[in-house]
Design goal:
pyruvate-formate lyase- activating enzyme; Arc Repressor Mutant, subunit A; nine-stranded mixed β-sheet; 17 helices; 18 strands; 21% strand; metal ion binding; HutW; Coproporphyrinogen-III_oxidase; S-adenosyl-L-methionine; metal-binding
């Protein structure tokens, strides 16, 4: 019998503040097994040749590993773009896409969404982003209504950049604003002022040429509830199609964490304060008529589908390109080397610049379905009953009952609905469910 009590939440008067001692996300490789290096090449060839059956939905991701500066809070910074680096890197990505595009396994499913992430994609020259987007459109089987997202920073969205992205086929812009408060922005290494950010975003949104989504972060040092409420007000007034609300993640080794340790900057919000800021955001957006379509994402208009993010959480296949990208086909997940020299050398040799390859366990389809349900705040238990996972639902029932008692969810027949507190603590809930499934697989 599996003991689920270790995953119980604290029962208190305000679960969003103290249901768990820490937020513990589920790492993507935790339930997967590394493939030995000597087997990677043969398995990869089978994946692109169509030996590995594709899943129903497919995505594509392009990783641009460059930034113009290292913001204090960021743990993803790797490379500063050097002179001549933009066209050279774009050439490599284009060659990588073009070379494998004709393989049977690559064209096996239409691609529902494309995402250019990083790093900062808009660190590239506009013409090079346009070239990459046009290559994706020409070489890959994009669905007629494919969502094509370009992620970037406020200061990069010049009229030239916007025109190039649109000409290349972009349909959606995801812009890392983090906060509109100039002082908080500057302390985190953001270059544009709050007023400059408002002007750029206002002009972009007014064009109505593509879906516009803003990323806001809560929990920065010196970011009071009043500053956070003002961020939300400005966001609504600007009128984007969607907004993401992300908790600040204090990443070990990032400049912010080091600055706090050395007393150079104030401590960020603790977990209890982060929970309160999340609640302020959720309540404010609900009152303003926004629709919450995932735990961190809200839509103001119907043009915002958030398709890439929702499908990736449900385990959709994802074709990956660019140094540091990660993807998956069928049972296998893979990552590309993040170092530029090995990436460049592999492309020039005619090889896929693979870094790692992992294979999922037998419960992967069930895990994906549960992860997708947790992500949108609604989990259908009837699916668990229908699949071949004997004993799983009876094992989970005491856990669901306890989480309901703790104020993290409510039951409606076979449906589990997360409360606002449950959405805030969703990483812990998903981690617990995956741990229980792993234990059942071990004991089977």
């Amino acid at each position: 019998m599996i003991d689920v009590t270790e995953h119980f939440a604290r029962v208190s008067g305000d679960p969003i503040k103290d249901a768990f001692p820490a937020r513990r996300p589920m790492m993507p490789w935790a339930t997967k097994t590394p493939v030995p290096d000597e087997e990677i090449g043969g398995i990869w060839q089978g994946m692109i040749e169509g030996v590995e059956p594709p899943r129903d939905r497919r995505l594509a991701y392009v990783h641009i590993p460059f930034c113009t500066n290292h913001c204090l809070f960021c743990g993803f910074y790797r490379h500063r773009l050097r002179d001549g680096g933009s066209p050279a890197f774009a050439d490599l990505v284009i060659e990588e896409i073009r070379r494998e595009a004709q393989a049977p396994g690559i064209g096996a499913r239409p691609i529902q969404a494309v995402y250019l992430g990083g790093g900062t994609p808009t660190a590239l020259a506009p013409v090079d982003i346009q070239r990459i987007l046009e290559t994706l459109s020409r070489q890959l089987p994009l669905a007629p209504d494919c969502e094509v997202t370009v992620e970037g920073r406020v200061k990069d969205f010049t009229p030239e950049m916007i025109d190039a992205c649109l000409a290349g086929g972009a349909t959606r812009f995801s812009i890392g604003v983090q906060t509109f408060d100039t002082e908080v922005r500057r302390r985190q290494g953001r270059q544009a002022s709050g007023a400059q950010a408002e002007r750029v975003l206002g002009d972009l949104i007014a064009r109505r040429a593509a879906t516009v989504v803003l990323d806001l972060v809560y929990g920065f040092p010196d970011q009071t509830p009043e500053i956070w409420s003002e961020d939300l007000r400005i966001c609504h007034t600007l009128g984007p199609d969607g907004v993401d609300l992300y908790a600040l993640n204090l990443i070990r080794g990032a400049p912010l964490q080091q600055a706090i340790e050395h007393g150079k900057i104030a401590a960020p919000a603790d977990l209890s304060q982060q929970g309160e800021l999340y609640r302020i955001g959720a309540d404010a957006l609900a009152e303003l008529g926004w629709r919450q379509i995932s735990n961190s994402h809200w839509a103001r208009t119907h043009s915002e589908r958030n398709r890439y993010n929702r499908l990736i959480k449900r385990g959709a296949d994802c074709l990956a390109y660019g140094a540091g990208a990660g993807g998956s086909i069928g049972r296998y997940s893979y990552s590309l080397t993040a170092d530029l020299d090995p990436y460049r050398e592999a492309i020039r040799r005619g090889d896929k610049p693979l870094g790692t390859l992992h294979v999922a366990d037998a419960l992967a389809p069930l895990r994906d379905r549960i992860a997708g349900g947790i992500e949108i705040g609604c989990l259908d238990l009837s699916y668990i009953e229908a699949v071949e996972a004997p004993g799983l639902l009876p094992t989970l029932e005491p856990l669901f009952d306890q989480w309901a008692q703790a104020g993290l969810l409510r039951r409606d027949g076979s449906l589990i609905h997360l409360t606002t507190a449950g959405r805030f603590w969703s990483p812990n809930l998903l981690r617990a469910l995956n741990r229980v499934q792993s234990e059942m697989l071990t004991f089977a």
